[in-house]
Amino acid sequence: MLIDKHHILKEKLKEVFGYDKFRGNQEAIIQNLLSGKNTFVIMPTGAGKSLCYQLPAIVEEGTAIVISPLIALMKNQVDQLRAFGVEAYFLNSTLNKSEIKKVKKAVSDGNAKLLYVAPESLTKEENVEFLKTSNISFVAIDEAHCISEWGHDFRPEYRRIKSIIGELGDLPIIALTATATPKVQLDIQKNLQMEDADLFKSSFRRKNLYYEVRPKSNSKKQLIRYVKENKGKSGIIYCLSRKKVEEIAELLVVNDIKAAPYHAGMESAKRIKNQDAFLNEDVDVIVATIAFGMGIDKPDVRFVVHYDTPKSIEGYYQETGRAGRDGLEGRCLMFYSYEDILKLEKFNKDKPVTERDNSKILLQEMSSFAESSVCRVRQLLHYFGETMTENCGFCDNCLNPKEKFEAKDAMLTVLLAIKETGQRFSMSHVSDFIRGVKNEHILSYGHDQLPTFAKGVNEDNDYWKSIIRQTLLFRYLKKDIENLGVLLLSEKGEDFLKNPISIKFTKDHEYNMDEVSEEESTDAQGSNVRAYDENLFALLKALRKKVAKEKELPPYVIFQDPSLEEMATVYPTTKDDLAQINGVGHGKVLKFGRPFLDLIAKYVDENEIETAMDVVVKSSVNKSKNKIFIIQQVDRKVDLDEIAESKGWSMSELIKEIEQICYSGTKLNLDYYIEQILDDERLDDLYDYFMNANTDNISEAMEELGDDEYSEEEVRLVRIKFLSEYAN
Ligand code: ADP
Ligand code: ZN
């Protein structure tokens, strides 16, 4: 019998899908389901889950119901099956009445082999009644982790699935997911009342993926450099908000990278266009919210970047899994900042209490993963309940190992603390206990009376949490699956208490976040304030002084300090490069550029510096929209008051915009306006001032000139005129 089935299945596999062999557990899973047993499949993304229900649906009589939360992808999945000649349909809120009728007819006629249903359509009374009368072969529950509130993608409607399936009769269930921690796994089985199900769990290990976490500082620049290093390769960049997606996609585009955005808020035609452009390699990089990639099977994605710190390890691992599906190179880079974690916690504020607590735990797991210097792969697999006895040897932590320290005593303290407090508490309580914190919790349990209380006062919370995490990772502790967050001693831990041995732990990373705050490493004028080459800066300043003297102009008219700093950061050696520097336009390059370029070229050569010109972060487009608008209006000699009003700006805001335009090297002729507000004498007076001043600082100018004599606006406008004439 089994032999027969084997032949039939293999034949169909070839006939319908064109594959010669099953992959991994596929056949065993299918056989199990076909023999009427409940089946639970945990397989990483890309391993071939769909086939596990599609093929049996084809060989069985009747219609298989496939429950999936991804309405947006249903049509796609159904189209794919139809392309193979399989009669598949879907039922969800996007269909109109007559379409629904058609679908139902195909099911009643027994033609439909698969019916994809959204959970909220499944729970509709009329649909339940209809399905009761139909011939259903089995039920597949895709993305089954959605049923668990302990996971990262909880959908409350999933909770009602089991009772509805019950109404349809005694049908075998196949549940499938690409992410399940041991806790979520148990939860899925409980909720579907399929504790008896046969479990098919494949390893989550993906040996071709390189994992790396970097602190999120100066991240725009890092990102551009990273993408340019991977030039011509396909990549996905995940951001957490739609706004960020738009912003980063624009940033990449203005930096000459073929990139496009993708998020749920976009018009669907545009979204599909961008997705296709990515699949067809018309764009290299797609910048997306997490919605992108589910159900999309591009085998040669070479890198996946998490530009924002992700919400959970589950989601993160699934998303990184979209890299290197073909088994070749796949690089996974995450930018981590604790500020992101705090931001995400804030978003959870309005969620119901349990959901909020769960999200918080997921976030804590995320931040310990990022901060830990233990092998990334080892941590990830441990999170999903797999054991690795050795490090991967290939991730950032393995390649740049941190110093190890003897942790025997520290671990002993942790194990004792957990044992003494009755193995009922979570990490933060244990850490408080060890550090001798006398909070309400500790006191109410009388924990301050126990021997290990306050044994670790000399180290801080981060230290103890890191010790606890590593104790867990090396399996001296285990997580209580029933009670989220609670830590228990493992057998190995009990043994250690009896016979403590030497054990080496590694120190966590210290990501110093105040060094350069987040990605916005640009000041008002958009110049980079990252540490610059001070020697070169000094040389540039000296040159500026010399040139200023020759031209009889104040030095700041030549180049402003931020421009010199940027030159001393990115070492421009061509006219085009120089024009990229903030505050330097082509006019300035022609007027003053040559000696500066020569100086930099010489310096670069002598000091064997690798120029980083390719990572100048060109400023983004919104600003330039205003810029174009202002330039056009000024060209038409529109009164500044009117320009300001039409944009809803104050005069001072408008002047600020104009200053930026002027500082970035564009000439603006404001004479038509200045003539209206200043007579010749006063104008000359201000001109004289700027010609002889040491700086163009406005407050100094106001002090010198007297604010009863000139308004700040007048002074600023004249400064713009002055700089436009002499500096640009
Ligand atoms: P998952 O749902 O697990 O992420 P899919 O079901 O989308 O993965 O399958 C991933 C890819 O593997 C698809 O392109 C699919 O056609 C292919 N695939 C599945 N099973 C086989 C097989 N037995 N032989 C060859 N390719 C397969
Ligand atoms: Zn490693």
Question: Can you walk me through this structure?
Answer:
The protein is α/β, with parallel strands linked by helices and 728 residues long. The chain folds into 5 domains: 6-201, Rossmann fold (3-Layer(aba) Sandwich); 209-386, Rossmann fold (3-Layer(aba) Sandwich), CATH 3.40.50; 408-502, Orthogonal Bundle (Arc Repressor Mutant, subunit A), CATH 1.10.10; 534-618, DNA polymerase, domain 1; 622-726, ATP-dependent DNA helicase RecQ (Arc Repressor Mutant, subunit A). It has 34 helices and 17 strands. It has a 7-stranded parallel β-sheet, sandwiched between helices. α2 packs across α3, α18 (408-420) packs across α19 and α19 (427-434) crosses α21. The longest helix is centred in the last third of the chain and has 21 residues, at 586-606. It is globular and about 100 Å long. Residues 514-530 have low confidence and may be disordered. Bound molecules: adenosine-5'-diphosphate and zinc ion. Zinc ion is lined by residues 375-377, 391-392, 394-395, 397-398.
What's a concise summary of this model?
The chain is an alpha/beta fold. The protein has 34 helices and 17 strands.
Which helices and strands appear, and what pairs or packs with what?
Blueprint: H1 2-17, H2 26-34, E1 39-42, H3 50-59, E2 63-67, H4 71-83, E3 88-91, H5 97-108, E4 114-117, H6 119-122, H7 125-132, E5 136-141, H8 161-168, E6 173-177, H9 182-191, E7 198-201, E8 209-215, H10 219-229, E9 234-238, H11 242-254, E10 259-262, H12 268-279, E11 285-288, E12 301-306, H13 313-320, E13 330-336, H14 338-347, H15 353-371, H16 376-383, H17 396-399, E14 404-406, H18 408-420, H19 427-434, H20 440-444, H21 461-473, E15 477-479, E16 487-489, H22 491-498, E17 504-506, H23 534-551, H24 555-558, H25 561-570, H26 575-580, H27 586-606, H28 621-635, H29 640-647, H30 651-663, H31 671-677, H32 680-692, H33 698-705, H34 712-726
Parallel strand pairs: 1-6, 1-7, 2-4, 2-5, 3-4, 5-6, 8-13, 9-11, 9-12, 10-11, 12-13
Antiparallel strand pairs: 14-17, 15-16
Bound molecules: adenosine-5'-diphosphate and zinc ion.
Adenosine-5'-diphosphate binds at residues 19, 21-23, 26, 43, 45-51, 297.
